[in-house]
Design brief:
Layout lengths: L8 E3 L1 E2 L2 E3 L4 E3 L2 E2 L8 E3 H12 L4 E2 L6 H13 L10 E7 L6 H11 L4 E7 L6 H6 L19 E5 L8 H9 L2 H11 L10
Parallel strand pairs: 8-9, 9-10
Antiparallel strand pairs: 1-6, 2-5, 3-4, 3-7
Helix pairs in contact: 2-3
């Protein structure tokens, strides 16, 4: 996705871990431990921040997705004021597939479906990913626990194990498969034209 970002600065957030010094469980923390500036420079910067973060935290349940979804949704909500199709947010979640707050996450995704954002979930490991498949509304419209329907399908789930031995382009194709349609669908619905950019 980084090739579609102008400055290559990405906020990287962790969830499902105990953090020092009080070892409280957090579901929304900057992996560079700088909450006012969680941005990392490129994919290499994210990988470096993750490696540096690991020795200082303890993975811990429950695993809640809704705080991270709501975090990105707050930024996407601010972007709804735009007059042209210039800002769109992609939340990439890399997870082992266990999810503890399914009702809250369903609600968060349904609310986010009204905003300029998409969610890509990459499942790592051999867990049962039924919950992730459920969030990916390919076979039916996702509903919140109150019965509200998602305005559009914004979740793409990809199980990494199916691409472990494949070319990286194959994984990229699966991850990005629905994104162009989701972006166009949102901006067309809002009747926002793209900005004319020089080649």
């Amino acid at each position: 996705i980084q090739d579609y970002d102008s400055d290559k600065m990405f906020p990287a957030l962790g969830f499902g871990a105990q953090l020092p010094p009080d070892w409280k469980v957090s579901h929304e923390f900057a992996i560079n431990f700088n909450p006012t500036n969680p941005f990392c420079s490129g994919v290499d910067g994210i990988a470096q921040a993750y490696s540096a973060c690991l020795p200082h935290i303890r993975f811990y349940g429950p695993t809640n997705f809704s705080p991270i979804v709501n975090h990105v949704a707050r930024f996407a909500a601010q972007a709804t004021q735009q007059q042209t199709a210039t800002q769109y947010f992609i939340l990439l979640i890399i997870t082992d597939g266990v999810i503890s707050d399914m009702e809250e996450t369903r609600h968060a995704v349904v609310q986010a479906s009204k905003l300029p954002m998409s969610i890509i979930i990459v499942g790592v490991g051999n867990a049962d990913f039924a919950a992730m498949e459920f969030l990916d509304g390919d076979s039916r419209t996702l509903r919140s626990h109150t019965g509200e329907e998602a305005a559009r399908d914004i979740v793409q789930f990809v199980p990494f194990r199916e691409f472990r031995n494949a070319a990286k382009e194959t994984l990229a194709k699966a991850v990005l498969a629905e994104l162009p349609q989701q972006v166009v669908q949102y901006f067309k619905h809002k009747n926002l034209p793209p900005t004319n950019s020089e080649p």
